[in-house]
Design a protein that fits this description.
The chain has helices at 17-28, 62-68, 81-94, and strands at residues 10-14, 31-38, 41-48, 55-60, 74-78, 101-103, 108-114, 120-125. It is of the alpha/beta class. The chain has a single domain (10-125), classed as 2,3-Dihydroxybiphenyl 1,2-Dioxygenase, domain 1 (Roll), CATH 3.10.180.10.
C-alpha cells in the first residue's frame, strides 16, 4: 500500500480574508506564507504556524463560511495537557471566549473558540487520557 504522510493543508471558507488573517494570527499565531491575489484583489491565503508544522488555507467564500458557522471542522493538535493549559491561559490573556480545558473522548480539549465567521476551531491534546 502507498502511504500518506499527513495533511498538506486544510482550507476554510471565510467572508473577509484580511479580518480572518488578523484573527488567526493574533489568536493562534499563524503567519501568512502565501497570498492568492486575483484581478488585484486578495482572495485567499495560506497560513503557517510558528513551528512550520501545519498549513491552514483561507479562501474568500462568504456563503460557504456562513454555512459552516457553528460547526467545528478543525481540531488542532496540542502535544500535552500542560501545553493545552498554556493555550487556555493565552486565550484568556487575549480576552478570547472559549470553553476552558475540558475532558474529551480521548484526551482534553479547548472548544468554543470561534473565528470571525463563527467557525469553531478546537485545540485537542495529542496526549491521550489513561483509561
Amino acid at each position: 500500500m502507498t502511504l500518506l504522510g499527513g495533511f498538506h493543508h486544510v482550507k476554510l471558507p471565510v467572508s473577509d480574508v484580511r479580518k480572518s488573517v488578523d484573527w488567526y494570527g493574533r489568536v493562534l499565531g499563524f503567519d501568512v506564507a502565501v497570498e492568492f491575489v486575483e484581478d488585484g484583489v486578495l482572495r485567499g491565503v495560506a497560513l503557517q504556524d510558528a513551528g512550520k508544522t501545519l498549513m491552514l488555507a483561507l479562501r474568500e467564500e462568504p456563503a460557504r463560511a456562513a454555512a459552516l458557522s457553528g460547526f467545528d471542522p478543525v481540531a488542532l493538535g496540542v502535544p500535552t495537557l500542560d501545553a493545552l493549559r498554556d493555550w487556555a491561559a493565552r486565550l484568556d490573556g487575549l480576552g478570547v471566549v472559549h470553553s476552558g480545558v475540558v475532558e474529551g473522548s480521548v484526551g482534553w480539549l479547548v472548544a468554543g473558540l470561534t473565528d470571525p465567521d463563527g467557525i469553531e476551531i478546537r485545540l485537542y491534546t495529542l496526549q491521550q487520557r489513561e483509561r
